[in-house]
Amino acid sequence: MKDQLGDIFTEALVEIISQISGFTLDVLPLEKEVGFDEMVGFMSLNSKKSGILSISAKQDTMRILCSSIIGTPKDEVTQEDIEDTLCEFVNMTAGSVKLRLHDEAYAFTLMTPFIISGKDLVIHTKKRANIISAALGNGEMTIKLNIIY
């Protein structure tokens, strides 16, 4: 189920970014967990098998995506606009996955997304946590996805 969950979350994020921003991102090959960039949007996924969804990106990547979505030049995009965009990616990804999952154990409740930002973010989990990671990119930008359950 781990690979299937990873595919479902990754496909949902790729589709959402494409639909609302017009950018196409490819799944990048991974050798290890992807870690976190300067901005990380989180959502708790509560069900019989609870977990955390995180989507992270650099500030510049979020500025480009946000500019495309709201139709404002990059230099006029506010920090609040960028944060709202990242929260919306998290919210829409979780909502899309919720609709796609048919396994009752993974039928989660959507919570309010939140953001943590800063340089050199490191988030630790217990040793036996299941972690699914993916990185999406197009040469100009990279977005990182982690599901911890």
Short overview:
This protein has 149 residues and is α+β, with helices and mostly antiparallel strands. It contains three helices and seven strands; from the N terminus they run αβββααββββ.
What would your notes on this structure say?
With 149 residues, the chain is α+β, with helices and mostly antiparallel strands. It has a single domain (2-148), classed as 3-Layer(aba) Sandwich (Chemotaxis protein chec), CATH 3.40.1550. Helix content is 36%, strand content 26%. The chain has three helices and seven strands, in the order H-E-E-E-H-H-E-E-E-E. It has helices spanning 2-21, 59-70, 79-100, and strands spanning 26-28, 39-46, 51-57, 109-110, 114-117, 131-137, 142-148. Strands 1, 2, 3, 4, 5, 6 and 7 form a seven-stranded antiparallel beta sheet that branches. A hairpin with a 4-residue loop joins strand 2 (39-46) and strand 3 (51-57). Helix 1 (2-21) packs across helix 3. It is globular.
